[in-house]
UniProtKB/TrEMBL annotation:
Organism: Roseospira visakhapatnamensis
Catalytic activity: L-valine + 2-oxoglutarate = 3-methyl-2-oxobutanoate + L-glutamate; L-isoleucine + 2-oxoglutarate = (S)-3-methyl-2-oxopentanoate + L-glutamate; L-leucine + 2-oxoglutarate = 4-methyl-2-oxopentanoate + L-glutamate
InterPro entries: Aminotrans_IV, Aminotransferase-like, BCAT-like_C, BCAT-like_N, Class-IV_PLP-Dep_Aminotrnsfr
Family: Belongs to the class-IV pyridoxal-phosphate-dependent aminotransferase family.
Protein's GO biological process: amino acid biosynthetic process; branched-chain amino acid biosynthetic process
EC number: 2.6.1.42
Keywords: Amino-acid biosynthesis, Aminotransferase, Branched-chain amino acid biosynthesis, Pyridoxal phosphate, Transferase
One example GO MF annotation: branched-chain-amino-acid transaminase activity
Any GO CC annotation of this UniProt entry: cytosol
Record-given protein name: Probable branched-chain-amino-acid aminotransferase
Pathway, per record: Amino-acid biosynthesis; L-valine biosynthesis; L-valine from pyruvate: step 4/4; Amino-acid biosynthesis; L-isoleucine biosynthesis; L-isoleucine from 2-oxobutanoate: step 4/4; Amino-acid biosynthesis; L-leucine biosynthesis; L-leucine from 3-methyl-2-oxobutanoate: step 4/4
Enzyme class (EC, first level): transferase
Cofactor: pyridoxal 5'-phosphate
Role played: Acts on leucine, isoleucine and valine.
Length: 292
């Protein structure tokens, strides 16, 4: 079956879909995106993703090109046409097409909207069972990491460096030695006394929707939680470590650089949180495409 994409009001063959050469997303990375998980044909945590999309657009002063419910209809239709039961929907909104000039184009220029969908969600069972290694790298990104911008070159370079080092992900480290986040994930540790620690939301990190849900699930489970920065050395000495994202859910980190975390195997708290999140996917997390 041929894949289908939505571009600016029409459904097109994925292989033929395109945007203009002077689209500002192409020339300036002047746009934002969201990745929404699909579980059983339903969107996961859609209200959180839509709220973050609106916030990112507002921060860049890009108008939402259609009402949220209409965008939900488009996402539902792209998912249906691609027969995605478990996978992702990708939404990208750029400022639009205008001659190449740094200042914003007139407000009459319509934003570019692209929506795609594909099957497949997260790493396979073997990866989940054994856990993954992360490599630490200096954080070289811009100062507004809270905006889910399509300007991802530093993230791409960090991910590539991690892969070349034989690691699953990069953990980026600020100038004071504290972990910010992964190249496409949020970073977590569990201290020796069982406290869950992850960096607080600020311009330093992206406010992950999976991160937000995991925090709520952990608190409901009675786990101690601290939103604070942690160093690479603290992470290496932790009882457990893991990363989270829309596609990875909660995935155990069993080694940081060349240092094993604890006994080098996924820990009980990470395993429990992943199970709770999977229950969430099958229950309250999977909602309606028309959520605001």
């Amino acid at each position: 079956m041929s894949r289908i994409a939505y571009v600016n009001g029409s459904y097109q063959l994925h292989a033929e879909a395109s945007v203009h050469v002077e689209d500002r997303g192409v020339q300036f990375s002047d746009g934002v995106y969201e990745v929404i998980a699909v579980a059983g044909g339903r969107p996961l945590d859609l209200p959180g993703h839509m709220a973050r999309l609106r916030r990112s657009l507002d921060e860049l002063r890009i108008a939402l090109p259609m009402p949220p419910r209409c965008l939900g209809v488009v996402m539902r239709e792209v998912t249906r046409r691609n027969r995605v039961r478990n996978g992702i929907v990708y939404v990208q909104i750029n400022r639009g097409v205008w001659r190449r000039d740094h200042p914003f184009p007139p407000e009459t220029v319509s934003p570019t909207v692209v929506v795609t969908a594909r099957s497949g969600l997260g790493p396979g069972p073997a990866v989940v069972e054994r856990g993954v290694r992360v490599a630490t790298l200096p954080d070289q990104r811009w100062a507004r990491r809270d905006i889910k911008s399509v300007s991802l070159l530093p993230n791409v370079m960090a991910k590539q460096a991690a892969h070349e080092a034989g690691a699953y992900e990069a953990w980026q480290v600020d100038g004071d030695g504290y972990v910010t986040e992964g190249s496409s994930t949020n970073a977590w540790i569990v201290t020796r006394d069982g406290t869950l620690v992850t960096r607080p939301v600020s311009a330093d990190i992206l406010a992950g929707i999976t991160r937000q849900t995991l925090l709520a699930l952990a608190r409901a489970e009675g786990l101690a939680v601290e939103e604070r920065a942690f160093t690479v050395e603290e992470a290496k000495a932790a009882r457990e470590a893991f990363l989270s994202s829309t596609t990875s859910l909660a995935l155990a980190v069993v080694a940081i650089d060349d240092a094993p975390v604890a006994n080098g195997a996924p820990g009980s708290i990470t395993t429990r949180l992943r199970a709770l999140y999977q229950d969430h996917m099958r229950g309250a997390g999977a909602g309606d495409w028309l959520a605001p």
